[in-house]
Amino acid sequence: MMLLNIVLMVFWGLLLLCVVVVIHEGGHFLAARAQGIRVTEFFLGLPCRWRISRTSKRYGTRYGVTVLLFGGYNQICGLAGEAPKDTKPVLLALMARGRATPEELAEDVGCTPEEALNALITLSDWASVEPFYDPEKGEKPNQKTYPEAFQTVERDAQLYTRFDRASDFSLPGASEAGVARPVEDGDAFFEREKKATYLGDGLIGRLVMLLAGVTVNIVFGILIVTLALMIQGITVTQNVSVIGEVDEGGLAEAAGLEPGDEITAVAGTPVSTWTGLHDALQDALHTGADFEISYVRDGAQERAIVPAQGANATAIGITAPTEQVRLGFVDAVAYTFTYLGMVAQMIMQLFSPAHVAEVVQNSTSVVGITVMAGEAAAQGFVPYALIAASVSISLGFVNLLPIPPLDGGKVLVEIIQAIIRRPLPEKALLAFNYVGIALFMLLFIVLLQQDIFRYVLGG
Question: Is the pLDDT of residue 126 over 80?
Protein backbone atom coordinates (compact mmCIF):
# COMPACT_ATOMS: atom_id res chain seq x y z
CA MET A 1 0.00 0.00 0.00
CA MET A 2 2.88 2.36 0.79
CA LEU A 3 4.44 1.68 -2.62
CA LEU A 4 1.11 2.29 -4.36
CA ASN A 5 0.69 5.63 -2.57
CA ILE A 6 4.17 6.70 -3.64
CA VAL A 7 3.50 5.69 -7.26
CA LEU A 8 0.20 7.59 -7.29
CA MET A 9 1.84 10.64 -5.72
CA VAL A 10 4.60 10.65 -8.35
CA PHE A 11 2.00 10.18 -11.11
CA TRP A 12 -0.14 13.11 -9.99
CA GLY A 13 2.92 15.27 -9.45
CA LEU A 14 4.32 14.53 -12.91
CA LEU A 15 0.91 15.07 -14.50
CA LEU A 16 0.61 18.47 -12.84
CA LEU A 17 4.10 19.53 -13.89
CA CYS A 18 3.51 18.29 -17.44
CA VAL A 19 0.28 20.28 -17.76
CA VAL A 20 1.84 23.46 -16.40
CA VAL A 21 4.94 23.13 -18.61
CA VAL A 22 2.91 22.37 -21.74
CA ILE A 23 0.80 25.46 -21.07
CA HIS A 24 3.92 27.59 -20.62
CA GLU A 25 5.72 26.30 -23.70
CA GLY A 26 2.46 26.42 -25.64
CA GLY A 27 2.35 30.14 -25.03
CA HIS A 28 5.81 30.59 -26.57
CA PHE A 29 4.87 28.30 -29.46
CA LEU A 30 1.60 30.03 -30.32
CA ALA A 31 3.13 33.50 -30.06
CA ALA A 32 5.93 32.49 -32.44
CA ARG A 33 3.62 30.81 -34.93
CA ALA A 34 1.22 33.77 -34.85
CA GLN A 35 4.08 36.02 -35.97
CA GLY A 36 5.24 33.65 -38.70
CA ILE A 37 8.36 32.56 -36.79
CA ARG A 38 9.57 29.02 -37.47
CA VAL A 39 9.35 26.50 -34.64
CA THR A 40 11.06 23.21 -35.43
CA GLU A 41 10.42 21.32 -32.17
CA PHE A 42 7.89 21.30 -29.32
CA PHE A 43 8.81 18.81 -26.61
CA LEU A 44 7.57 17.92 -23.17
CA GLY A 45 10.66 17.12 -21.12
CA LEU A 46 14.23 18.37 -21.14
CA PRO A 47 16.37 17.86 -24.27
CA CYS A 48 17.44 14.23 -24.46
CA ARG A 49 18.25 11.65 -27.15
CA TRP A 50 15.71 9.22 -25.66
CA ARG A 51 12.44 10.61 -26.91
CA ILE A 52 9.26 9.80 -28.81
CA SER A 53 8.15 12.25 -31.49
CA ARG A 54 6.01 12.84 -34.52
CA THR A 55 6.55 15.42 -37.25
CA SER A 56 3.64 17.49 -38.50
CA LYS A 57 3.30 17.15 -42.26
CA ARG A 58 1.52 20.51 -42.47
CA TYR A 59 3.87 22.67 -40.38
CA GLY A 60 7.04 20.60 -40.15
CA THR A 61 7.24 20.97 -36.36
CA ARG A 62 8.29 17.87 -34.47
CA TYR A 63 6.13 17.22 -31.41
CA GLY A 64 7.13 14.74 -28.74
CA VAL A 65 8.14 13.79 -25.24
CA THR A 66 11.50 12.91 -23.69
CA VAL A 67 12.25 10.72 -20.69
CA LEU A 68 13.30 13.77 -18.63
CA LEU A 69 9.82 15.02 -17.77
CA PHE A 70 10.90 17.86 -15.48
CA GLY A 71 10.50 20.61 -18.04
CA GLY A 72 9.83 21.31 -21.70
CA TYR A 73 11.09 23.39 -24.58
CA ASN A 74 10.39 24.93 -27.97
CA GLN A 75 13.02 25.14 -30.68
CA ILE A 76 12.20 28.62 -31.97
CA CYS A 77 14.46 29.46 -34.91
CA GLY A 78 16.92 32.30 -34.49
CA LEU A 79 17.47 32.16 -30.73
CA ALA A 80 21.14 31.24 -31.11
CA GLY A 81 22.28 34.85 -31.48
CA GLU A 82 23.59 37.16 -34.17
CA ALA A 83 24.36 35.71 -37.60
CA PRO A 84 28.01 35.58 -38.79
CA LYS A 85 28.94 37.95 -41.62
CA ASP A 86 29.19 35.14 -44.18
CA THR A 87 25.71 33.74 -43.49
CA LYS A 88 24.04 35.16 -46.59
CA PRO A 89 26.65 34.15 -49.20
CA VAL A 90 26.98 30.69 -47.65
CA LEU A 91 23.20 30.20 -47.84
CA LEU A 92 23.06 31.30 -51.48
CA ALA A 93 26.04 29.08 -52.36
CA LEU A 94 24.42 26.04 -50.77
CA MET A 95 21.11 26.80 -52.50
CA ALA A 96 23.01 26.71 -55.80
CA ARG A 97 24.76 23.42 -54.97
CA GLY A 98 22.04 21.56 -53.07
CA ARG A 99 24.54 19.72 -50.88
CA ALA A 100 28.11 20.68 -49.98
CA THR A 101 30.81 20.60 -47.33
CA PRO A 102 31.99 23.70 -45.44
CA GLU A 103 35.26 23.47 -47.39
CA GLU A 104 33.45 23.60 -50.73
CA LEU A 105 31.28 26.51 -49.64
CA ALA A 106 34.28 28.35 -48.22
CA GLU A 107 35.91 28.14 -51.63
CA ASP A 108 32.74 29.45 -53.32
CA VAL A 109 32.31 32.34 -50.90
CA GLY A 110 35.94 33.23 -50.20
CA CYS A 111 36.00 32.60 -46.46
CA THR A 112 37.63 30.02 -44.20
CA PRO A 113 36.02 26.57 -43.64
CA GLU A 114 35.53 27.52 -39.97
CA GLU A 115 33.61 30.67 -40.96
CA ALA A 116 31.52 28.66 -43.42
CA LEU A 117 30.75 26.07 -40.75
CA ASN A 118 29.65 28.78 -38.27
CA ALA A 119 27.35 30.22 -40.93
CA LEU A 120 25.90 26.76 -41.63
CA ILE A 121 25.28 26.19 -37.94
CA THR A 122 23.35 29.47 -37.79
CA LEU A 123 21.40 28.59 -40.93
CA SER A 124 20.55 25.19 -39.47
CA ASP A 125 19.17 26.98 -36.40
CA TRP A 126 17.06 29.05 -38.80
CA ALA A 127 15.80 25.83 -40.50
CA SER A 128 17.08 27.34 -43.77
CA VAL A 129 19.47 24.41 -44.29
CA GLU A 130 20.03 21.11 -42.51
CA PRO A 131 22.95 18.80 -41.70
CA PHE A 132 23.24 15.82 -44.06
CA TYR A 133 24.01 12.64 -42.15
CA ASP A 134 25.47 10.15 -44.62
CA PRO A 135 24.83 6.57 -43.43
CA GLU A 136 27.55 5.30 -45.77
CA LYS A 137 30.04 7.26 -43.69
CA GLY A 138 28.54 6.06 -40.41
CA GLU A 139 26.98 9.46 -39.61
CA LYS A 140 23.89 9.56 -37.38
CA PRO A 141 21.52 12.43 -36.42
CA ASN A 142 22.25 11.95 -32.70
CA GLN A 143 26.03 12.11 -33.01
CA LYS A 144 27.93 14.73 -31.00
CA THR A 145 29.63 16.35 -34.01
CA TYR A 146 28.28 17.91 -37.19
CA PRO A 147 28.46 15.75 -40.34
CA GLU A 148 30.79 16.48 -43.23
CA ALA A 149 28.10 18.07 -45.42
CA PHE A 150 25.00 20.23 -45.22
CA GLN A 151 22.07 20.41 -47.64
CA THR A 152 19.03 22.42 -48.65
CA VAL A 153 15.70 21.70 -46.92
CA GLU A 154 12.34 20.87 -48.49
CA ARG A 155 10.92 23.94 -50.24
CA ASP A 156 7.75 24.65 -52.22
CA ALA A 157 7.56 26.43 -55.55
CA GLN A 158 7.93 29.82 -53.82
CA LEU A 159 10.95 28.63 -51.78
CA TYR A 160 9.00 28.43 -48.52
CA THR A 161 9.87 25.65 -46.07
CA ARG A 162 7.49 23.34 -44.22
CA PHE A 163 7.84 25.60 -41.18
CA ASP A 164 6.49 28.67 -43.02
CA ARG A 165 2.78 29.50 -42.79
CA ALA A 166 2.73 30.60 -46.45
CA SER A 167 4.06 27.27 -47.74
CA ASP A 168 1.96 25.19 -50.14
CA PHE A 169 3.47 21.86 -51.16
CA SER A 170 0.36 20.82 -53.08
CA LEU A 171 1.42 22.99 -56.04
CA PRO A 172 3.99 21.82 -58.62
CA GLY A 173 7.56 23.05 -58.30
CA ALA A 174 8.35 21.80 -54.79
CA SER A 175 11.74 20.20 -54.12
CA GLU A 176 13.05 17.70 -51.61
CA ALA A 177 15.98 18.18 -49.26
CA GLY A 178 19.38 18.17 -50.94
CA VAL A 179 18.08 19.52 -54.26
CA ALA A 180 19.70 22.65 -55.74
CA ARG A 181 17.42 25.72 -55.84
CA PRO A 182 19.45 28.67 -57.20
CA VAL A 183 18.07 32.04 -56.09
CA GLU A 184 17.80 35.06 -58.40
CA ASP A 185 17.22 37.82 -55.84
CA GLY A 186 19.60 36.75 -53.08
CA ASP A 187 19.10 39.82 -50.90
CA ALA A 188 15.30 39.51 -50.79
CA PHE A 189 15.49 35.75 -50.21
CA PHE A 190 17.92 36.12 -47.33
CA GLU A 191 15.85 38.85 -45.66
CA ARG A 192 12.76 36.67 -45.93
CA GLU A 193 14.62 33.77 -44.32
CA LYS A 194 15.84 35.98 -41.50
CA LYS A 195 12.37 37.48 -41.02
CA ALA A 196 11.05 33.98 -40.25
CA THR A 197 13.29 33.78 -37.18
CA TYR A 198 13.39 35.26 -33.70
CA LEU A 199 16.55 37.12 -34.71
CA GLY A 200 14.76 38.85 -37.59
CA ASP A 201 11.76 39.96 -35.54
CA GLY A 202 11.47 43.40 -33.92
CA LEU A 203 11.73 44.19 -30.20
CA ILE A 204 7.95 44.07 -29.62
CA GLY A 205 7.64 40.73 -31.38
CA ARG A 206 10.51 39.26 -29.38
CA LEU A 207 9.06 40.46 -26.08
CA VAL A 208 5.66 39.01 -27.01
CA MET A 209 7.27 35.62 -27.63
CA LEU A 210 9.29 35.74 -24.41
CA LEU A 211 6.37 36.84 -22.23
CA ALA A 212 3.74 34.60 -23.83
CA GLY A 213 4.64 31.63 -21.63
CA VAL A 214 4.37 33.69 -18.45
CA THR A 215 1.10 35.21 -19.64
CA VAL A 216 -0.67 31.92 -20.35
CA ASN A 217 0.56 30.45 -17.04
CA ILE A 218 -0.98 33.34 -15.12
CA VAL A 219 -4.17 33.43 -17.22
CA PHE A 220 -4.59 29.66 -16.77
CA GLY A 221 -4.21 30.08 -13.01
CA ILE A 222 -6.70 32.96 -12.92
CA LEU A 223 -9.30 30.94 -14.82
CA ILE A 224 -8.93 27.85 -12.62
CA VAL A 225 -9.04 29.78 -9.34
CA THR A 226 -11.99 31.88 -10.47
CA LEU A 227 -13.97 28.83 -11.60
CA ALA A 228 -13.16 26.96 -8.38
CA LEU A 229 -14.37 29.89 -6.28
CA MET A 230 -17.60 30.00 -8.27
CA ILE A 231 -18.19 26.22 -8.26
CA GLN A 232 -16.87 25.09 -4.89
CA GLY A 233 -16.56 28.40 -3.06
CA ILE A 234 -14.39 29.25 -0.09
CA THR A 235 -14.47 28.22 3.53
CA VAL A 236 -15.84 31.10 5.63
CA THR A 237 -15.84 31.29 9.43
CA GLN A 238 -19.32 31.92 10.85
CA ASN A 239 -19.51 34.73 13.38
CA VAL A 240 -21.83 32.87 15.76
CA SER A 241 -21.23 31.59 19.27
CA VAL A 242 -21.53 27.95 18.24
CA ILE A 243 -18.68 25.46 18.72
CA GLY A 244 -17.39 24.06 15.43
CA GLU A 245 -14.77 21.63 16.76
CA VAL A 246 -13.37 20.69 20.17
CA ASP A 247 -9.64 20.02 20.50
CA GLU A 248 -8.72 16.69 22.03
CA GLY A 249 -7.21 17.13 25.50
CA GLY A 250 -8.23 20.79 25.76
CA LEU A 251 -10.09 22.61 28.54
CA ALA A 252 -13.36 22.54 26.60
CA GLU A 253 -13.25 18.75 26.33
CA ALA A 254 -12.51 18.50 30.06
CA ALA A 255 -15.55 20.67 30.77
CA GLY A 256 -17.76 18.39 28.63
CA LEU A 257 -18.39 20.81 25.75
CA GLU A 258 -19.15 19.32 22.33
CA PRO A 259 -19.34 20.51 18.69
CA GLY A 260 -22.68 22.16 18.01
CA ASP A 261 -23.09 23.60 21.51
CA GLU A 262 -24.34 27.21 21.37
CA ILE A 263 -22.62 29.23 24.08
CA THR A 264 -24.84 31.93 25.56
CA ALA A 265 -22.65 33.26 28.38
CA VAL A 266 -19.08 33.12 29.70
CA ALA A 267 -18.55 33.88 33.39
CA GLY A 268 -21.87 35.71 33.43
CA THR A 269 -21.14 37.75 30.29
CA PRO A 270 -23.77 37.16 27.55
CA VAL A 271 -22.35 36.30 24.11
CA SER A 272 -24.01 35.82 20.70
CA THR A 273 -21.12 36.10 18.22
CA TRP A 274 -17.78 34.33 17.84
CA THR A 275 -15.98 37.64 18.27
CA GLY A 276 -17.82 38.31 21.55
CA LEU A 277 -17.20 34.72 22.68
CA HIS A 278 -13.47 35.07 22.02
CA ASP A 279 -13.22 38.31 24.00
CA ALA A 280 -15.24 36.92 26.92
CA LEU A 281 -13.09 33.76 27.06
CA GLN A 282 -9.89 35.82 27.10
CA ASP A 283 -11.16 37.91 30.02
CA ALA A 284 -12.21 34.79 31.95
CA LEU A 285 -8.96 32.92 31.28
CA HIS A 286 -6.84 35.87 32.42
CA THR A 287 -8.41 35.74 35.90
CA GLY A 288 -6.71 32.39 36.45
CA ALA A 289 -9.81 31.01 38.27
CA ASP A 290 -12.55 28.52 37.41
CA PHE A 291 -15.39 30.02 35.42
CA GLU A 292 -18.80 28.96 34.21
CA ILE A 293 -19.98 28.61 30.62
CA SER A 294 -23.71 28.58 29.78
CA TYR A 295 -24.72 26.85 26.57
CA VAL A 296 -27.65 25.31 24.71
CA ARG A 297 -27.52 21.67 23.58
CA ASP A 298 -30.48 20.01 21.84
CA GLY A 299 -32.72 22.88 22.97
CA ALA A 300 -31.84 22.52 26.66
CA GLN A 301 -29.93 25.10 28.68
CA GLU A 302 -26.75 23.61 30.19
CA ARG A 303 -23.82 24.81 32.28
CA ALA A 304 -20.17 23.72 32.46
CA ILE A 305 -17.25 24.66 34.67
CA VAL A 306 -13.90 25.32 33.00
CA PRO A 307 -11.11 24.47 35.45
CA ALA A 308 -8.53 27.09 36.35
CA GLN A 309 -5.21 26.96 34.45
CA GLY A 310 -3.54 30.09 35.74
CA ALA A 311 -3.50 33.60 34.31
CA ASN A 312 -1.25 32.55 31.38
CA ALA A 313 -3.89 30.35 29.73
CA THR A 314 -5.00 31.71 26.33
CA ALA A 315 -7.49 29.17 24.88
CA ILE A 316 -9.90 26.44 25.92
CA GLY A 317 -9.56 24.39 22.70
CA ILE A 318 -12.55 25.22 20.50
CA THR A 319 -12.80 26.47 16.90
CA ALA A 320 -15.52 28.39 15.12
CA PRO A 321 -17.95 26.69 12.71
CA THR A 322 -17.35 27.19 9.00
CA GLU A 323 -19.40 27.04 5.82
CA GLN A 324 -18.72 26.91 2.06
CA VAL A 325 -19.73 30.08 0.26
CA ARG A 326 -19.86 30.21 -3.53
CA LEU A 327 -18.71 33.53 -4.92
CA GLY A 328 -20.22 35.41 -7.82
CA PHE A 329 -18.09 36.15 -10.87
CA VAL A 330 -17.06 39.66 -9.79
CA ASP A 331 -16.18 38.60 -6.23
CA ALA A 332 -14.32 35.52 -7.50
CA VAL A 333 -12.20 37.60 -9.89
CA ALA A 334 -11.48 40.15 -7.15
CA TYR A 335 -10.43 37.38 -4.74
CA THR A 336 -8.24 35.81 -7.44
CA PHE A 337 -6.43 39.05 -8.17
CA THR A 338 -5.88 39.54 -4.45
CA TYR A 339 -4.19 36.14 -4.43
CA LEU A 340 -2.12 37.15 -7.48
CA GLY A 341 -0.93 40.23 -5.64
CA MET A 342 0.15 38.13 -2.67
CA VAL A 343 2.15 35.76 -4.91
CA ALA A 344 3.79 38.66 -6.74
CA GLN A 345 4.68 40.33 -3.45
CA MET A 346 6.25 37.13 -2.15
CA ILE A 347 8.34 36.70 -5.32
CA MET A 348 9.50 40.32 -5.15
CA GLN A 349 10.76 39.72 -1.62
CA LEU A 350 13.55 37.62 -3.15
CA PHE A 351 15.21 40.97 -3.87
CA SER A 352 14.96 42.00 -0.22
CA PRO A 353 17.87 40.64 1.86
CA ALA A 354 15.69 40.78 4.97
CA HIS A 355 13.07 38.44 3.49
CA VAL A 356 15.05 36.09 1.20
CA ALA A 357 15.42 33.35 3.82
CA GLU A 358 11.72 33.51 4.70
CA VAL A 359 10.64 33.27 1.04
CA VAL A 360 12.97 30.34 0.36
CA GLN A 361 11.75 28.57 3.50
CA ASN A 362 8.14 28.92 2.33
CA SER A 363 8.96 27.77 -1.23
CA THR A 364 9.13 24.24 -2.55
CA SER A 365 10.79 22.14 -5.26
CA VAL A 366 9.46 19.40 -7.52
CA VAL A 367 9.44 17.07 -4.49
CA GLY A 368 7.11 19.34 -2.52
CA ILE A 369 4.92 19.93 -5.57
CA THR A 370 4.63 16.17 -6.08
CA VAL A 371 3.62 15.61 -2.45
CA MET A 372 1.04 18.43 -2.51
CA ALA A 373 -0.34 17.24 -5.86
CA GLY A 374 -0.76 13.70 -4.54
CA GLU A 375 -2.53 14.90 -1.39
CA ALA A 376 -4.79 17.24 -3.38
CA ALA A 377 -5.68 14.52 -5.91
CA ALA A 378 -6.80 12.28 -3.04
CA GLN A 379 -9.24 15.02 -1.96
CA GLY A 380 -10.82 15.46 -5.38
CA PHE A 381 -10.60 17.23 -8.72
CA VAL A 382 -11.13 20.79 -7.48
CA PRO A 383 -8.35 20.72 -4.84
CA TYR A 384 -6.02 19.21 -7.45
CA ALA A 385 -6.95 21.86 -10.00
CA LEU A 386 -6.30 24.58 -7.41
CA ILE A 387 -2.82 23.20 -6.74
CA ALA A 388 -2.18 23.19 -10.50
CA ALA A 389 -3.37 26.80 -10.70
CA SER A 390 -1.14 27.80 -7.79
CA VAL A 391 1.92 26.16 -9.38
CA SER A 392 1.09 27.72 -12.77
CA ILE A 393 0.78 31.22 -11.31
CA SER A 394 3.95 30.82 -9.25
CA LEU A 395 5.84 29.53 -12.30
CA GLY A 396 4.65 32.52 -14.27
CA PHE A 397 5.87 35.07 -11.72
CA VAL A 398 9.16 33.22 -11.09
CA ASN A 399 9.86 33.26 -14.84
CA LEU A 400 9.64 37.05 -14.75
CA LEU A 401 12.73 37.26 -12.55
CA PRO A 402 15.57 38.92 -14.52
CA ILE A 403 17.78 35.85 -14.23
CA PRO A 404 18.80 33.60 -17.13
CA PRO A 405 17.74 31.04 -18.20
CA LEU A 406 14.35 32.42 -17.09
CA ASP A 407 12.24 34.46 -19.51
CA GLY A 408 12.76 37.58 -17.41
CA GLY A 409 16.52 37.35 -17.96
CA LYS A 410 16.02 37.19 -21.72
CA VAL A 411 13.63 40.14 -21.59
CA LEU A 412 16.25 42.15 -19.67
CA VAL A 413 18.87 41.39 -22.34
CA GLU A 414 16.50 42.48 -25.13
CA ILE A 415 15.69 45.75 -23.35
CA ILE A 416 19.36 46.53 -22.69
CA GLN A 417 20.25 45.84 -26.32
CA ALA A 418 17.38 48.06 -27.49
CA ILE A 419 18.64 50.90 -25.27
CA ILE A 420 22.28 50.67 -26.38
CA ARG A 421 21.16 49.90 -29.97
CA ARG A 422 23.60 47.05 -30.47
CA PRO A 423 23.97 43.44 -29.35
CA LEU A 424 25.70 42.87 -26.04
CA PRO A 425 29.24 41.48 -26.33
CA GLU A 426 29.29 37.69 -26.37
CA LYS A 427 31.53 37.56 -23.28
CA ALA A 428 29.10 39.76 -21.32
CA LEU A 429 26.17 37.53 -22.32
CA LEU A 430 28.07 34.40 -21.33
CA ALA A 431 29.02 35.89 -17.95
CA PHE A 432 25.42 36.99 -17.35
CA ASN A 433 24.13 33.54 -18.27
CA TYR A 434 26.68 31.73 -16.10
CA VAL A 435 25.86 33.85 -13.05
CA GLY A 436 22.14 33.43 -13.59
CA ILE A 437 22.35 29.67 -14.09
CA ALA A 438 24.55 29.35 -10.99
CA LEU A 439 22.00 31.26 -8.88
CA PHE A 440 19.17 29.24 -10.36
CA MET A 441 20.90 25.92 -9.65
CA LEU A 442 21.80 27.03 -6.12
CA LEU A 443 18.15 27.85 -5.40
CA PHE A 444 17.06 24.53 -6.90
CA ILE A 445 19.50 22.56 -4.72
CA VAL A 446 18.50 24.45 -1.55
CA LEU A 447 14.78 23.86 -2.19
CA LEU A 448 15.37 20.22 -3.06
CA GLN A 449 17.39 19.61 0.11
CA GLN A 450 14.77 21.45 2.14
CA ASP A 451 11.95 19.30 0.71
CA ILE A 452 13.85 16.06 1.22
CA PHE A 453 14.19 16.86 4.93
CA ARG A 454 10.59 18.11 5.10
CA TYR A 455 8.76 15.35 3.22
CA VAL A 456 11.11 12.35 2.93
CA LEU A 457 13.09 12.35 6.17
CA GLY A 458 10.36 13.98 8.20
CA GLY A 459 12.56 16.82 9.39
Answer: yes
